[in-house]
Amino acid sequence: MSAGTQVHANLTEEQVREISGDLNEPDWLTETRLEALEALEELDMPDVIRTPGRDWTNLHDLDFESLVDPLNAAEDKDQVGPDEAEVLAWSDAVAEHEELLKEHFGSIVDPQENYLTALSTALFSTGTVIYVPEGVDAEDVTVRTEQNSRSLFNYTLVVTEESSSVTILERQSTGAEQDEQYYSGVVEVAAGENSYVQYGSLQNLSKEAYNFTVKRGVADTYATVDWIEGNLGTQLTKTEVSTTLSGDSSETQIVGAFYGHNDQHFDLDAKVWHRAEHTTADLVTRGVTDDVARSVYEGVQDVGADAWDTSSYQRENTLMLSDESEADASPKLIINNHDTEASHSATVGQIDAEDLFYMTSRGVDPRAARNMLVEGFFVPVLEEVDVDELRDDLEELIGARLRQRD
Amino acid sequence: MSSDQDHLQETDTEARFEFKKEENAAVRSGKGLTEEVIRMISEDKDEPDWMLERRLRALEQYHNMPMPSDWPGMPDLSELDVEEIIPYIRPDVDKREGVDDWTELPDEIKDTFDKLGIPEAEKNALSGVGAQYESEVVYQNMQEQWEEKGVIFCNMDEAVREHPELVKEHFMTTCVPPSDNKFAALHGAVWSGGSFVYVPEDVTVEMPVQAYFRMNSEGMGQFEHTLIIAEEGSEVHYIEGCSAPKYGTHNLHSGGVEVFVGEDAHVQYSTVQNWSKNTFNLNTKRAICEENGTMEWVSGSMGSKATMLYPCTILKGRGSTDTHITIAFAGEGQDIDTGAKVYHNAPETSSTIESKSISKDGGRTNYRGLVHIADGAENSSTAVECDALMFDNESTSDTMPYMEIEESKVDVAHEATVGKIGDEDIFYLQSRGLDDDDAKKMIVAGFIEPITEELPIEYAVELNRLIELEMEGSLG
């Protein structure tokens, strides 16, 4: 299906120029935005899995015409970090770091990769640039975004210089709720030699929101890019979290936790491209589906022909709490170098009846027993989270959602 | 087979499988797919009108369907020009429907099957044998004891005439309709030959029945249809083997297999696929399982240029079971894209998929599998295990499973590993006095053992030999 039909009649070059002008962007950025706008006509929606008789996610039915309101973006934002690192609002970064932006903006996530990345590039009005100089260890960088408008397009760039490290927590939530909202985020991470990035994200947008997010990192030699991805909000989420291991001995970990209830639909991709020697990847996702929620998971471990001595592991586990929920999973291995140790596994199931029986036989109330088992199910994922705030909040939100059930 | 192991010792693939015979056709269709060609095939077979109508309908569907193109990582079919394929060649034999005595066959055909070891196997290990040469079955025989019990094992063309009610009901209707995919539609239009197996209630056919499919002519397509109906409480094991000489142009094999597994029935379908490396092998195989029925697919894919084959089981009845065991071996220039498909449509159904693949010398294997558990299929379980072994860095090994779970009371597990042949394992075996080649062969034999042990001993031996043959070239 061509995306051409999606192009907004009400989306104009003038609007893009206005957004870019308000941010005092240099011409090359304005041009990049305009090119993305123009490309919309040609671009397709992001890939979704289709099997005979089944589309795992349907993005074509989304009415972008009414969802996108480019000139009325509104948000509350916190961008804080330690003094050693620079945590800048987009307009400040444009003023102070043009060369840095020129080097990295759009170099990791191609603005014209698909219709939604192009839309995001053309229209983003807010963003954060995190720059960590050589040798600096920066902890507790926090970026909070509260969406108060119909649509919000957000951009984040993280650049770590040699032997630096940074821990980032990003959160998205909704302030003023509307009947339908659209959040779009593009995150690019350029991890320099021997640097370390942990990027934690907690998405808890309103239940009426649609969310499209791409987070992608490139790890240089000896660098590590770790992602933590918590998804709780929205009615429909389509995300990709991915790392290209382009430097020898680089590593990545992608940890995901999700909990879908009501009629939520999560389409979550975790991908790694091994493109150098001695690289390691570990992908771990755990999630729960309840009520009539549906989860779709695609994991890809792609080992290039030059990626000698690769280690790559992937696990995905889904727990179904209700009979009406659905869980689709497709963990893929693409192996072009035989000097590889790779494995993946995926399971879908419900709470183990024997576990439940054991606990109730010890006098635990069945409801409490069930909640404890679900909380326990998330432990292997939560253990991987370094940032206390993120781990505590995830635990609390999961607990709260469980207690909401009868 | 055991009494004549000598021919199996031959290590030259060409001498064993890829030898060519002069083409000696009685009837040969034109190239391509036109209504005229379809009518000519049907007329040559003296078919009833209803079958001709089905063929023509399938032809129309074929023309209306696009070539598959949007599958991630699918084999390259761009060199396949269906319009250049000769869909129908009837070999020049005296008796249509196949003789039941090998000596009545023309020398070159008899010699072909002798070389392939079929008559020998028949004596030792089989209840019945069908042998197809080009588009027609030339030999068909079954031991009398089974005929007396009402078992039918005949060629498909004969079944259309002799058992029209059974065929009308089951042939490309509910199991594999031509609309299923483009190559099923193609098959529905030009199918020829193949086997019809009917096992009455509560009859157990103790030894396997086998069909062997041989393509001899350059540029032809073979489209045999296999229909197996196993009534309540019955049991049968069907084995198919196939091979062809190698040519510079492409051959096409697009078979159709439909299996109806009745209540409490048990069907095993084993395939040893050894098409020459200029053959496109694009098949549709499917089984429907009634209550407590069991379907077992055992597939070894060694040959072909490109294979796209995903045997499918629909677990329709409560308590039915599916087992898939598959080995893929891809050498130079081969793309073996195979796997399994299982639909759990009833409660208490279970499936087990075990896939082993080996790639070397630039070959590509891909496990592509779909497990669907429908809403309401309570207490169902599925376990998928894929292991891949890579010999060298020119080769590719992909794994693409898809799981669709609509029911919560289930147990779903998928696991896959990819690795190279371990240097330590080789070193260990070498230190015990084996040379490098033998060590590698032994490791591979161990790797595929879970599959060979599911086959009757004669076939397990055959499969091991085939793999040894495939390994000869690169290891020497």
From TrEMBL, chain A:
Domain SUF system FeS cluster assembly SufBD N-terminal: 76-139
Gene Ontology biological-process entries: iron-sulfur cluster assembly
Residues of the SUF system FeS cluster assembly SufBD core domain: 146-377
Annotated InterPro entries: Fe-S_cluster_assembly_SufBD (IPR055346), SUF_FeS_clus_asmbl_SufBD_core (IPR000825), SUF_FeS_clus_asmbl_SufBD_sf (IPR037284), SUF_FeS_clus_asmbl_SufD (IPR011542), SufBD_N (IPR045595)
Source superkingdom: Archaea
Membership in a protein family: Belongs to the iron-sulfur cluster assembly SufBD family.
Identification of the protein by name: SufBD protein
Highest classification ranks of the organism: Archaea, Methanobacteriati, Methanobacteriota, Stenosarchaea group, Halobacteria
Automatic annotation (TrEMBL), chain B:
Organism: Natrinema pallidum DSM 3751
Domain SUF system FeS cluster assembly SufBD core positions: 213-447
One GO process term, biological-process aspect: iron-sulfur cluster assembly
Ranges for region Disordered: 1-32
Protein's UniProt name: FeS assembly protein SufB
Location of the SUF system FeS cluster assembly SufBD N-terminal domain: 138-210
Sequence intervals crossing the membrane: none
Basic and acidic residues bias spans: 1-25
Source species, domain of life: Archaea
Lineage per the UniProt record: Archaea, Methanobacteriati, Methanobacteriota, Stenosarchaea group, Halobacteria
Pfam families: SUFBD_core, SufBD_N
Family: Belongs to the iron-sulfur cluster assembly SufBD family.
PANTHER family xref list: FES CLUSTER ASSEMBLY PROTEIN SUF, UPF0051 PROTEIN ABCI8, CHLOROPLASTIC-RELATED
